[in-house]
Records
---
Amino acid sequence: MMCCMQRRNGHYRHLVLCGWAFIALAFLFCASRVAQENAEALKNNPARKLESYHFNASTQLIDRLKPIPSFLLEEIKKMDGRDDYRNYTFSPEEKKELAHYLELLPPRYKDVMRKRLIGIYAVSPFMGAGLTDWVMDAKGEVYAIMVINPGVMKKNISEWLTYREKSCFNDDGSGLEVRVDVGVRYSALMYFLLHETAHVVDYVEYHTPYVELSLKAVSAYSARDKLFVRGIWDEYAKPDRDADFPLRSEITFYGLSNGPKIPLSKAKELYNAFSKSPFVSLYASQNWAEDFAETAMVYHITRKLHQPYRILVHRKGKILYQYYPDKSEKKEQRFKYFASFY
Ligand SMILES: [Zn+2]
């Protein structure tokens, strides 16, 4: 599962559910005893089986916005330890915004989603912005479901990315603050859709060797095999020496991994180092899957939606440092990969 935002965030859930994906694939390809036992559990989990859903690849994407099936809602409630999650019905205005944003996604994403996105569900309350998860058919083909927290439509994209960025730093009383400016035209739903659907496309088309570390055992690819990754990453979460930068290993998000570890007084130092790297965001520098999702997102936001992208360090509104990641030559080189998505 990839659900890369807010509070308790992606990684915990991501690991929980990518375990399922691994189990499924291991069953399909390895058939070890342990995998078979786990696969039994998987087989009995309706949320992981395509046949549990009424999937129709000929419907419009917006018509896949449906009430969440109860077995899936129960699964997510259990995973999150929450019993207050409820199906949420989008207002006509919210549905219109979603339809509009889906239209604005890269054509390649829409193609993949038409073939593989089973349903879009809204749940509220919900911890995090939403999630994307795998479902499999009997042949092992990967499909996806998407859950949206309707709260993402109430924040603009800059507010959301600023929230994410701030979670890297601890307040050391220096008075410094960080902010991400991606304009105010779009709500955080645009970020959610661009980032999460990039993971779906990556799962289906293998732009990176494997989207989740636990899929390594069943992937036929390594870093050398993938153009987007080659020369940038040696391993899933280990950049090539030339791509790495000081303090990168200290970057954490949402209070996870014993973070935040970087004091705000080091923000300028961190961004200075980051600015020389090939990554478009601190989030992208975590592993090749996030690198793919973030680079695709920044490319689309700046080049196709014509929004700004600027990281600022300020004190009481006075800008002390600013950086435009999309304007660097190294990042520009990597944007070229995405031209074929249009
Ligand atoms: Zn992600």
Note: The longest strand covers residues 130-136.
---
Amino acid sequence: MSAPAWYDNGMRHIWLPYRQMKTAAPPLAVTKTHGSRIVLEDGRELIDGIASWWTAVHGYNPPHITNAIAEQAARMPHVMLGGLLHDQAARLATRLAALLPGDLSRVFFSESGSVAVEVALKMAVQFWLNRGVRTRTKFVAFKGGYHGDTFATMAICDPEEGMHTLFAGVLAQNFICELPRDEESAEALDRFLANHADEAAAIIVEPLVQGAGGMVFHDEQTLQRLRALADKYDLLLIFDEIFTGFGRTGAMFASEAAKVVPDIMTIGKALTGGTLPLAATVASGKVFDAFFSDEPLHALMHGPTYMGNALVCAAANASLDLFESQNRLLAANDIGKAMATALGPCLSLPGVSDVRVRGGIGVVELAGTPNREALCQRFVAEGVWVRPLRNVVYLTPALTISEGELAALTGAVRKVLESGTV
Ligand SMILES: *Cc1c(COP(=O)(O)O)cnc(C)c1O
């Protein structure tokens, strides 16, 4: 079937993400979505295994959210937050402050996760500057971590997997350490901080699950050790919950499950239920207090043009309504149980090195790095949309996916991996 004109014309002009535009297989033409389905131009429907980069927790086109967006669009799509405030942003900040653990209670909005992390980093450095400390400018981050694609965030991603090598010499130097998964690595980090903490503003980590770095899990104790070390060395602790937030790990936030409250948290991705781009950096009272003074220069020096956009905040408020009215956390845990049962047998397949599940995240790790495009094409042939991250085949479906659709996803993963990992 020949592609429509918009596709052929657009492919001469659009620049797609993470993609060798010369050699990569052409993207699939999509016309609409519904529930857990992506509908292609040629009429095929794919069951979505990854919920559009982990955003569409309520499935696609949830009417409660799309109606809220339409109503807000008719009333007021956008007004700047410089000198003005509107009900959607105010209500969303109030609701997030009530929902988030501890005294994480000051919400700064932005339009993408990378920017929310940039703001968290800037906030941490300025926290010290406002107290007259000019030497705490670096960050302690972890191998396997991913925090975004902008320059400051690239510089705290995993040095091997991230873009460190390509941009070496351009990126800021930070301390990329081993996660303190056991007593030994905790002691090593403790010794490292004894020498270097006074150069660092904060520790930043993705709590419980390192997402884009390969869906690698760690336990609650690892985060408790980080909280203890941050307290011992007077460092701020930042949790990047852009992937883990809003039910993905089976708790509303990973920090809740771990019973550890960070000083700053970043959220994004599923915040609007996969409908519109919104992220936020949320600070504790302790952090906010360092900015709250009679000195104008102590103000937080940041302000994205579209921050707190009313349409986007309306979508997020409607998404929170759905979390209140539907038991998404129970659903995440049920999905996890079903994935553990259905994916477990993959462990005996040649080329599979690990199978793991946490909440609504199911992972089959391969011993070698497969040809991702070939694998993707075989998944599409099975009627599912699954896109491996390097050597990790994973499922992060909508938390509303039906049992039958989930079985089709796990069945396709088994079938494709049984026939070889390419
Ligand atoms: C996706 C992600 C980001 C970056 O978010 P963008 O909206 O893509 O800029 C940052 N941190 C984590 C943990 C993420 O998963």
Note: The pocket of pyridoxal-5'-phosphate is lined by residues 112-114, 117, 146-148, 206, 211-212, 240, 242-243, 268-269, 279 (CB under 6 Å).
